[in-house]
Automatic annotation (TrEMBL):
<feature type="compositionally biased region" description="Low complexity">
    <location>
        <begin position="32"/>
        <end position="51"/>
    </location>
</feature>
<feature type="region of interest" description="Disordered">
    <location>
        <begin position="14"/>
        <end position="51"/>
    </location>
</feature>
<feature type="compositionally biased region" description="Basic residues">
    <location>
        <begin position="20"/>
        <end position="31"/>
    </location>
</feature>
<protein>
    <recommendedName>
        <fullName>Metallo-beta-lactamase domain-containing protein</fullName>
    </recommendedName>
</protein>
<dbReference type="Pfam" id="PF13483">
    <property type="entry name" value="Lactamase_B_3"/>
</dbReference>
<dbReference type="InterPro" id="IPR036866">
    <property type="entry name" value="RibonucZ/Hydroxyglut_hydro"/>
</dbReference>
Length: 337
């Protein structure tokens, strides 16, 4: 995975011009990828208001399965999410399921990814809390801060990580980058209930970063790797996110048990969050063998999701990741002076 530091040309996205009727949580510029300013004149009896439009970049690199490297606050704070960097995904039962990455090398150390400020774990299952990967990371960087679901405590407690914070849904923690002093807040929200054995919900997260410098502006990423969420929790708390990362293609076991949701559920999640970008994750895309492969099916396509989203939220942009190739998503702010 050393190629992540020198990938193919990055993919850069800016938002399309918004409708005057849309009111996202953070207003964004209508111009291309650069800072700009414009003057907005109010009603005749009022004074002139000058609006300066500034931007920050959210950089996302997909590492296959559920793994991501996020670079927030213009790259000043780096988050490694649900990584699988060592070997295959087999849940300890390769005869049942054995999945290999299709694009990236199956072995890669943290040093290949550069400095990381936070390790974020959503679930206790092996496709999120991968024991071989975490064992290697803990040996290389025991002081790496970790934020995780309490469901992962039996796994993480056995590893030599020095700084682990367990968050129940509704709890949050704030972290500061060791080198850059950039600040992020991680809020846990309810995710799926996995099993067997059945237990408390796993975590989804809203990760909010404040831009470094004068006038700190906030931007946020919401991550839910199964597209299973508590709509009431999000609605009651008025949670918003500029970037939504979630699957859009459903995965089902025996055509009746939903492993991963998507499609119309992903559209509703984008609506609830007021997302400017949806980044679909294709976490079922791998070279797999084993008994489970015969009874897992998919429903829907990314294009079908695009069509659904275009009807419901025409201004929300879908940005598909390519493993190992960074996406640069530009989040804009309007500062009224």
């Amino acid at each position: 995975m050393a190629g992540l530091l020198h990938p193919p040309p990055s993919i850069i996205y800016a938002l399309p011009s918004p409708s005057p009727h849309r009111r996202p949580p953070i207003r964004r510029a209508t111009t291309r990828i650069r800072n700009s300013s414009s003057s907005v004149k109010s009603e005749p009896s009022s004074s002139t208001v000058t609006t300066t439009k500034t931007a920050t970049t959210v950089k996302l690199t997909y590492l296959e399965f559920n793994g991501w490297l996020w670079e927030l606050d213009g790259g000043r704070f780096r988050v490694l999410v649900d990584p699988l960097l060592v070997g295959n995904l087999d849940f300890g039962m390769p005869w049942l399921f054995d999945g290999a990455k299709k694009t990236l090398p199956k072995d890669g150390l943290q040093e290949d990814l550069g400095v990381v400020d936070l390790l974020l774990i959503t679930s206790s299952l092996d496709d999120h809390c991968h024991l071989r990967t975490l064992t290697r990371l803990a040996a290389v960087s025991p002081d790496l801060p970790v934020v995780a679901t309490p469901n992962a405590r039996p796994i993480l407690a056995a590893l030599p990580f020095d700084d682990v914070t367990y968050l129940e849904p509704g709890q949050s923690t704030t972290l500061v980058g060791a080198a850059t002093k950039s600040e992020v807040t991680v809020l846990a929200t309810p995710g799926p209930v996995n099993g067997p054995p059945w237990q408390r919900p796993e975590n989804s997260y809203v990760v909010t970063s404040s831009t470094t410098g004068e006038g700190q502006r906030k931007h946020s990423v919401y991550y839910e790797p199964h597209c299973m969420y508590d709509a009431g929790f999000l609605r009651d708390r008025g949670l918003r996110a500029d970037v939504l990362i979630t699957p859009v293609i459903k995965q089902q076991l025996l055509a009746s048990f939903t492993l991963v949701s998507g499609q119309e559920d992903a559209v509703e999640l984008a609506r609830l969050l007021g997302a400017a970008y949806v980044v679909p994750m294709n976490n079922g895309e791998c070279d797999a063998k084993g008994l489970l492969t015969a009874v897992i099916s998919t429903q829907g396509t990314t294009q079908a999701f695009r069509d659904l989203l275009a009807d419901a939220l025409p201004e929300t942009q879908v940005v598909e990741p390519t493993p190992g190739v960074p996406l640069h998503l530009h989040v804009y702010f309007d500062d009224d002076n």
